[in-house]
Amino acid sequence: MILIGFDIGGTKCAVSLGEAENGRARVLKRRALATPKRWQDALESLFILAEELLEGRTPAACGFSCGGPLDAKAGLVLSPPNLPGWDRVPLTRLARKRFGAPCFLENDANACALAEWRWGAGRGSRNMAFLTFGTGLGAGLILEGRLIRGANGNAGEAGHIRLSPFGPAGYGKEGSFEGFCSGGGIAQLGVTLGRRALQRGAAPAYYTGSWEDVTAKSVAEAAMAGDGTARDVFDLCGGKLGEGLAVLADVLNPEVIVIGSIFARCEALLRPAMERAMARECLPAALSALRVVPAALGEGIGDYAALCAAEYGLAEEKHTA
């Protein structure tokens, strides 16, 4: 089965031609471009790239993976903060008209959850949560073998959970799960703990004279090189990660929680504090049934997510027909 996937982001977009058969998938070809400012230009460029990849073939389905807010059922993008001007853009209607195939739209966290469940680290499970842990912290939920979207498509916004009355800001809330466990949150923690260390006469290795230059990557590199303050940052982040996961474990009782991006790259720095917090906070029965693992699809997860939006949408459509 030939599928087309569109991965739409604020800075870059990609089109993937993929093949899915017997519970397996592979990306055959891929093209990427910087995201044009106007959504009309972006879609036209993406559709042209898709036509070049298809070489005259008609795909079984097209899938879109895009940051929210959006209306997945109606196929509308609803002014995501990273896509200014994309207000009520009818992605699936326009793609269906262009390619003559069923077209489906998913929130990017949901699409990544589907991809890891169908083809990655969550394969074989019936109850799974996926956390993005990148620039922000989004979540996708698979419960009893199906994607959970909620009453109006907002299920899984775990980043908004408050873990502390005060702390780094994320998702518009100080002390939130996203505030502590995201690229932006790690940078904020790096500045806060770094200032304290500097006042004590021990500048952290990631401090180059300007706090504005502190990033999650620079703190991670310093932590891996043994810098004490940077390690404290990841210990704090890992502990809050464990507290947030404990909430998900106790409420959802999943078999596996798959975490992408920063966790996949910095697991050794985060897991010890994460496991200590989970042991302290989780119900023993929920913890005993749970595995926490890094995402398996790596840097290609965005491509697989878009393709899986197509594959899963087609399967849902057939099931409800």
Set down the secondary structure blueprint.
Elements: E1 2-8, E2 12-21, E3 24-34, H1 39-54, E4 61-66, E5 70-71, E6 76-78, E7 87-90, H2 91-99, E8 103-107, H3 108-119, E9 128-131, E10 139-143, E11 146-148, E12 169-170, E13 173-174, H4 177-180, H5 183-199, H6 216-224, H7 228-252, E14 256-259, H8 261-281, H9 284-288, E15 291-294, H10 301-320
Parallel strand pairs: 1-4, 4-8, 9-14, 14-15
Antiparallel strand pairs: 1-2, 2-3, 5-6, 6-7, 9-10, 10-11, 12-13
Helix pairs in contact: 3-10, 5-7, 6-7, 7-8
Structure at a glance:
This protein has helices at 39-54, 91-99, 108-119, 177-180, 183-199, 216-224, 228-252, 261-281, 284-288, 301-320, and strands at 2-8, 12-21, 24-34, 61-66, 70-71, 76-78, 87-90, 103-107, 128-131, 139-143, 146-148, 169-170, 173-174, 256-259, 291-294.
Explain what you see:
The chain starts with a strand and ends with a helix. The mean pLDDT is 94. The protein has helices at 39-54, 91-99, 108-119, 177-180, 183-199, 216-224, 228-252, 261-281, 284-288, 301-320, and strands at 2-8, 12-21, 24-34, 61-66, 70-71, 76-78, 87-90, 103-107, 128-131, 139-143, 146-148, 169-170, 173-174, 256-259, 291-294. Helix 3 packs across helix 10 (301-320) and helix 6 (216-224) crosses helix 7. The protein is built from ten helices and 15 strands. The chain folds into two domains: 2-107 and 299-320, ATPase, nucleotide binding domain (Nucleotidyltransferase, domain 5); 121-296, Nucleotidyltransferase, domain 5 (2-Layer Sandwich). It has a five-stranded mixed β-sheet, sandwiched between helices. The radius of gyration is 20 Å and the shape is globular. The protein is 43% helix and 22% strand. With 321 residues, it is of the alpha/beta class.
